[in-house]
Structures are given as C-alpha cells and as structure tokens.
Amino acid sequence: MRDAVIVGGGAAGLSAALLLARARRKVTLIDEGRQRNAPSAHSHGLLTRDGFSPADIVNVGATDVARYGGEIVYAGVDSISSASDGAFEVELNDERVIRARAVLVATGLTDVLPELQGVSERWGVDVIHCPYCHGFEVSDQPIAVVGGDNRPFTLHQASLIRLWSDDVIFFPNTIELTPDEAASLNAWGVKVELGKVSQIAPCAPDGVLAVTMEDGRSFSRQAVFVGPKFVPNDKLLRALGCTPDATDWVEVDSEGRTAIDGVWAAGNVISSPAQIVNAASQGATAAISINHYLLARDIQAASSRANNA
C-alpha cells in the first residue's frame, strides 16, 4: 500500500512527488514519458531553469524525487478504481496494480493542432503557440499568427505577439473577423491578410518559414504562432466520477481536490493556461493537501487503536 500515487511526470506531478517524499510518505509517480513540451528545445519562464530543455527539467526533477525515496515507474495507466477497503487501485498498462490511499492525477492536456500542412512537422520548433514561452527568442523578427479552430485564443495571440515585434501579420485563415476586430488589429500595428492558408514550410536554409496562401501568395516569416485546441487528458478523472465545471474541465478546489474523496488533480489537466511554474505550484499545493488528508487519517487510526487497546 502506497500513501499516494501520482499519475503524470511533468512539472505538477514531479513537484507533488518531491514534497510528499520529503514528508516521508511512500509515494509512487507513474509516467509514460510523453511530456507535452517535449518537441521544444528550450523552456522559459521557470526561475533557475530558464533555457533548459524540457527533458533536462524532467530528468533533474526525477533525480530530486528519487533522492528522497520517491518511486518512479515508467508505464501507462489504464484505470483507477476505488477498492472496497477505501483504497485506490491503479492498474498499469503492463497489468501491474498499485494500491494507494490517495491519488493525484497530473496527466496534462493534448494540443489539437490546426489541420495545415507543415504545422505538426514544425511544431515546437518555429511553429509555436505561447508568446511568453517563445516570444523573446523571436523579438523584432517577422512573425505570423495563423487562425484556426481556437478563435478567442488566436485573436488574443495576434494582439499579444505585437509586444515582441513591429512586423506581425495575422492570417485569419478560417476565422471571419468582424469590422471592429480588423480595425482594432490594424490600429495596433498588426497587418491582416485575408484568405485561406495552404501550408507552412521552410523556405531558406536559415530556418525562415513561408506561409503560403491558397491563391499562391507567400510570406516569409521567422516564426509562426498558431492556436491549438486544448483538450485535457482527463479520462481517468472522469471515469472516477469527477465532475466538470461550466467550461467542461474537471472541477477542483483551491487545493486541487476533486469531488471524489482522496483524489486530487493539478497542472494542465485542469488548467490550460498553466505554464511549468504554475503547474509546479499546483502540484506542491496538492501535495501539502494530500499530506494533511493522510495525517488526519493516521491520527484517527491511532486514536481508534488506543481506544480499543
């Protein structure tokens, strides 16, 4: 029996595992090694680790957890279920079952990319989505923003990225702008090019991209920002009976508690805007809450033993 099982080995999961291991809890972190930011060469905005690769950040975090006795298992999780004795049974994809008193799910989200030729091939390199993560690296360069299914996010991108460059072209693509939206972008210094985009592809050895339209026009850009649809990897939570909020994301309280007693969630599985530092903070908050939850039950069990002695 483990005190806690954590599913997901990104910033949220590793942060939680570290705090629980340091609290001398028996904790197992399960990860299948598919970090969302793995395609990027560098991560930014994380104090003391700015510019490190996502792989390096995960490896350092795993080393920290192991140093305090935390167990890390590299596998997928097929299901989490409640046992008759109140514990949770976490079934791995290799048929092992790990029992735990509490569970934290930190399985992140999936970026559903616009269906444009070249987007998935260049994703995380020079086709990107977060100005706070990558904007500084393309400062004062020619930048494109290409519209997709995530309309609100893309329109915000088109305005936001202007803070990093005076040369921004917004390609609404499949988005139909209102006259007020187009006028606001133009006033802010963002050029709008109407028409559908056919592909994004390298056009020079130095990494410059060409945004090519269906009518044959082509625009050279150093980087292209797109707005993915953010889909939480929350099937484990939903199968447990965790309830969604009004936006259809699993609802948690300020400590990451779900509606199911003994189950917590943290990171991008419950919050699409959460960057590494936010996810790590949520993981730490959830870990402290889990430890307090376990402590209350430890004291209750000790009192019951004393009374029955």
Query: What would CATH call the homologous superfamily of the largest domain?
Result: FAD/NAD(P)-binding domain
Catalogue the unreliable spans: none
What is the count of β-strands?
Answer: 17
Oligomerization status of the protein chains: single chain
Describe the structure.
β10 (168-171), α6 (179-188) and β11 form a beta-alpha-beta unit. It contains eight helices and 17 strands. Strands 1, 2, 3, 4, 5, 6 and 17 form a seven-stranded mixed sheet that branches. It has a five-stranded parallel sheet with strand order 8-15-9-10-11. It has a three-stranded antiparallel sheet with strand order 12-13-14, with no helix packed on it. It has helices at residues 11-22, 54-67, 119-122, 131-134, 151-160, 179-188, 235-240, 276-308, and strands at 2-7, 27-31, 71-74, 77-82, 88-92, 97-105, 109-112, 127-128, 143-146, 168-171, 190-192, 197-202, 209-213, 218-221, 223-226, 229-232, 263-265. The protein has two domains: 2-111 and 229-308, FAD/NAD(P)-binding domain (3-Layer(bba) Sandwich); 114-226, FAD/NAD(P)-binding domain (3-Layer(bba) Sandwich). 30% of the residues lie in helices and 25% in strands. It is α/β, with parallel strands linked by helices and 309 residues long.
